[in-house]
Amino acid sequence: MSARQPAARRGRDRKAELLRPTPGRNRFERDDAPSVAVVGGGIAGLAAATLLAERGARVTLYEQQESLGGRLAGWRTRLADGSETTMSRGFHAFFRQYYNLRGLLRRTDPALDRLRPLPDYPLRHSGGMTDSFARVPRTPPFSALGFVALSPTFGWRDLTAMDARAALPLLDVRVPHVHERFDSMSATRFLESVRFPEAAHHLAFEVFSRSFFADPRELSAAELLLMFHIYFLGSSEGLLFDVPTEPFPQALWNPLGDYVQRHGTDIRTGTPVREVHADDDRGVEVRTDTAAHRYDAAVLALDPGALRGLVDASPGLGTPVWREDVATLRTAPPFLVSRLWLDRPVRADRPGFLGTSGYDGLDNISVLERYEGEAARWASRTGGSVVELHGYAVAAGTPQEAAQNRLLDSLRRIYPETRPARVVDARHEWRADCPHFPVGSHARRPTVRTPHPRVTLAGDAIRCDLPVALMERAATTGLLAAGALLADWGVRGQALWTVPRAGRSPVLRALGKLARH
């Protein structure tokens, strides 16, 4: 069921959709509150734990690492100059379309004061062209027309050279129809069929695809079209975004952890779950290294590799078909985050975030002191700069030191003032735990519901037939996973917001319909 509510509740987009939860009582009574294990303390697990605890369930949250946040966790480290600082796995953009994630963060920050808007989202190609979204209108279709009018990489001549009929599906992306139709082709093949200009292909669309940590030749075209809908033609929130004013733990997860603890949640960090055994009559048993605990239900909110490992170690969990589907979940190629503390500042006009393409594996540059308080204080004290470099989908077999050096060389090419800078200290984070959505994978992707009614799944790898992606998919599936359990117990879940589930404009929908015939 969907409806529209006052814009202040969701963002500026008047066409955002509200999905109401299954009706039920407001919360459990103290004497009938079920016990629920939430396995995984990232965004999805925190979202599930928050909703369950708010409704009165007795929640135990297990997290393998020593801190909450999952792929947005942070930890303390000491630099060569003696400074203590917080390291993380790198920059994340909190887009205005992330209604459910932002709603989760509003539990401890009602006005979202701990998020700060960045003024632009510039994209630079090694050929010298730069696109900007600062002056592009946010409301479709003017967003697309404005981009064409202002972009040096995508002009009116390029627009007329495109295959208009092949491009029509972009105008009316429907969920889940888009996966039924386009999951069998790659993002690259779709762009080639549309005859997008090469520069625009590299800048706008490759940046989208690589935000999935994936080579666009392998990424499902359906995911690319979904991204285009979420951020461009399906929403009037635009492509600008917010970033935390302090490192992730201080700004986001420590306050949210305190919040769920005040609601009775038992948080057990540094506690990996090794096995899960479900019995529909007796609930769920969760085994750690030291003990086995029984719960009425469980939410498994894990990355693809961890979920595969846990299911493999839990032979009685699920049906053979479901277990095979979990086993097919793919992990994206490795990615690299290099954070550098430099002894001199980058130029004052450098943006807080720059997307890049064609620079030997460098996908973006962040200048942390432009927005993060901890980095700004270090830069002010030392006269230096804190710069972060990302390299996604690093080719198999690439020596780590060689990849790190290539990112540094590209930084010096893009920001020449960094060439004479001395690196006071550096941290290089290599990870390979993000979900991959290759061609043809959608039909087998596990959903929130599992064969066991008391076990649900959550995370950005989990199938969700709503127009959400990345962090927002994690938050949304976490709330859906908790909501499914609550509905079975007759307790109300949480209303969810999404961008429209189909093209927002009648004219665009009519044009998009032509492509389906």
Description:
This protein has 3 domains: 206 residues, FAD/NAD(P)-binding domain; 104 residues; 99 residues, Polyamine Oxidase, Chain A, domain 2, CATH 3.90.660. The chain has 16 helices and 25 strands. A 7-stranded mixed β-sheet has the order 10-9-19-20-21-18-22. The protein has a 5-stranded parallel β-sheet with strand order 12-4-3-16-24, covered by helices on one side. The longest helix has 19 residues. Strand 5 and strand 6 form a beta hairpin. It starts with a strand and ends with a helix. It has 517 residues and is of the alpha+beta class. The N terminus is likely disordered.
What does the secondary structure layout of this molecule look like, with pairings?
Blueprint: E1 2-3, E2 17-19, E3 35-39, H1 43-54, E4 58-63, E5 74-78, E6 84-88, E7 94-95, H2 99-105, E8 115-117, E9 123-125, E10 130-131, H3 142-150, H4 156-161, H5 164-167, H6 177-182, H7 187-194, H8 198-210, H9 221-233, E11 241-244, H10 248-262, E12 266-269, E13 273-279, E14 283-288, E15 292-295, E16 297-301, H11 304-312, H12 320-327, E17 330-331, E18 335-342, E19 353-359, E20 362-367, H13 373-382, E21 385-391, H14 400-414, E22 423-431, E23 435-436, E24 455-458, H15 470-488, E25 496-498, H16 506-514
Parallel strand pairs: 3-4, 3-16, 4-12, 9-19, 16-24
Antiparallel strand pairs: 1-2, 2-25, 5-6, 7-11, 8-11, 9-10, 13-14, 14-15, 17-23, 18-21, 18-22, 19-20, 20-21
